[in-house]
Design brief:
This protein has 149 residues and is of the alpha/beta class. The chain has a single domain, classed as 3-Layer(aba) Sandwich (Rossmann fold), CATH 3.40.50. Helices cover 34% and strands 12% of the residues. It is built from five helices and four strands; from the N terminus they run βαβααβαβα. The protein has a four-stranded parallel beta sheet with strand order 1-2-3-4, with helices on both faces. The protein is globular and about 45 Å long.
């Protein structure tokens, strides 16, 4: 589970789990069972936003940029994923979540997305602009995926 840049980290774990970056002698499976991504920084492939540039640094090489843009390649092994995002988020474009969600849906990975009309960036567990709580939807989705009893 991760929000914003933490969503970037969580999505990286869920899409790069086959490549151990430290010794993994017991060959532990590094794939998360599921992901919960709140307004995650997962790049829309056709552009680099201000947030992407902050993560990559101003002097990022073209190789690093290419790697970053392709970094969230989803496969049938990508863990089931739940997204939450506000449509009016000015920091992380809602298309980051919707594009990733659509890719997962297209290849049959269990996924759900909950979009608020308002809430901006950084609302966390409680979006004060709405009386609807996304955490209830998350819990129902997790039960449906047999992640909770």
């Amino acid at each position: 589970m991760g929000f914003s840049a933490g969503g970037h980290l969580a999505a990286t774990l869920g899409t790069h789990f086959k490549k151990a970056l430290i010794p993994n002698k017991p060959a532990i499976n590094l794939r998360p069972d599921f992901m919960v991504l709140g307004y995650p920084v997962v790049t829309v492939p056709d552009s680099l936003s201000r947030v992407d540039r902050m993560l990559l640094g101003p002097a990022a090489s073209s190789k690093k940029i290419k790697q970053y843009l392709e970094g969230f390649a989803v496969t049938a092994q990508t863990p089931p994923t739940f997204f939450v995002h506000a449509k009016d988020d000015k920091t992380v474009d809602v298309r980051y979540s919707t594009t990733f969600y659509e890719k997962l849906q297209k290849i049959g990975v269990p996924t759900e997305i909950y979009l608020y009309d308002q809430g901006g960036h950084g609302f966390g567990l409680n979006n004060k602009t709405s009386d609807k709580k996304w955490t209830g939807r998350l819990q129902a989705w997790m039960k449906k995926q047999h992640l909770l009893d």
